Protein: Pyridine nucleotide-disulfide oxidoreductase domain-containing protein 2
Organism: Thermoproteus uzoniensis
Amino acid sequence: MVDVVVIGAGHNGLVASALLARSGLDVVVFDKLSWPGGMAGYHVLGGAEVGVGAYVVGVMPREVLDRLGVDLEVEVPDPVAVYELDGQYVKWWRNPGKRVEEFRQWGLGDEIAAFWEKLTALNRAARRYFFGGPPSEEALAEDPEAAELVKKTARDVMSQYLPEEFWPMFLYRHLWDEPAFLLAYFNPPEGWGRPVWRGERGIQALSKALYRTALESGAEVVLGVGVRKIVVERGAVKGVELDTGKLVEARAVLSTASPIHTLLELVEGIDEGVARRLRDAAATAGPYRLNVVLSEPVKLRRGLAPYRDSIFQLPMGEMLVDGDRLSVVGEPDIGRLESYVENLGKVKAFEVWTPADYQSTFNAAGAYVNHLPMAREFLFSCRPVCGWGYRTPIRGLYLGGAGTWPGGQITGVPGVNAAEAVLRDLSRRP
Ligand SMILES: Cc1cc2nc3c(=O)[nH]c(=O)nc-3n(C[C@H](O)[C@H](O)[C@H](O)COP(=O)(O)OP(=O)(O)OC[C@H]3O[C@@H](n4cnc5c(N)ncnc54)[C@H](O)[C@@H]3O)c2cc1C
């Protein structure tokens, strides 16, 4: 019998298992995949390590890494992003003064300064609620600094400052009518960048750093072995049954897999109302990812060439270049890609990940990128189910991935909060 089985070695599972193991618990992590990091993981393509899902880090609070003692840095490029608008490039510079100068070309100098001040204030207010239990919408509405996060939509805030053609720089179109919280969430003042750890640069650096931390903290991480069932007896968790048929008994099971998969496919007896809510949580159109490895460094065409470290926000999706590698997430199109990349003909290897691949690879049915939609119905104390937080009605079964507060993307916060809930409960029980 172990103390805790963690399902999933994504970044949240690795964060949670490291914290649990450091508290002296006997922890074993199982992941069906052969790589650590889940959607923030990587594999080898054409002899190079390439990311399979996430590509930049931004939402993760520094305190998550500090708490684990992980010496990982995030290298934010300057400009952070280059946004294509009507065939011209709008640069999002790190320096506020330079940014104002840039936007003056579109007659929006003062507006962008005021908009940024607002975003920073909203982000600060949102982050105050990241740790601990999820806040209710009502609690946020009563906090003068946080009220706008729930009382206004992202559209309300953006329309106060900027014409609509600039909004995609800050938020995906399908989220414009959702709470302004999402505008704050997706726009951290520090910007987005590539993780750097011990000389490695790229998303694989984050996964390797967290994997190493989990192992060094004493957690056992078993890759390539999935969980096919969470075993429950008389309303309490007994352990998990692996794909191999082996039963691993545990005092607690913390699933960082999608709540849809965990609650609909791994356990039985979930309340029909909850099951329906999860079944109905349909994904908005999911992304495709194109990974390309060239036999020489990527040559960008004029216009983009000076900014090769930046995140390119193009009509077909977001493009990232790294030496001889490039990726596009969104709706990649080879024909269009040639208009940005001079030497695409030097391709050594490429692959395409489809929305269906994401669903099947990660067991992330429905809203796979963030496990559940980032939409009002699934935010705040209603992520994943109103009033649950990180616990479930099954004693000893916890949830702690992107489908829990504060939500998806690379943050590590659900992992921290869920680990704390497990620790609190296990210290009370013999
Ligand atoms: C194409 C794409 C691009 C993205 N870009 C970004 C980005 O640039 N920046 C950003 O911050 N976020 C990005 N995201 C979102 C981000 O990657 C995820 O929200 C985040 O990584 C989720 O982390 P997690 O640990 O909660 O879950 P996951 O990473 O999904 O980890 C859960 C793990 O559980 C495992 N699992 C599932 N079922 C079982 C089972 N039955 N038994 C054993 N193991 C199981 C899965 O294999 C998986 O490894 C992107 C996602 C995608 C798909």
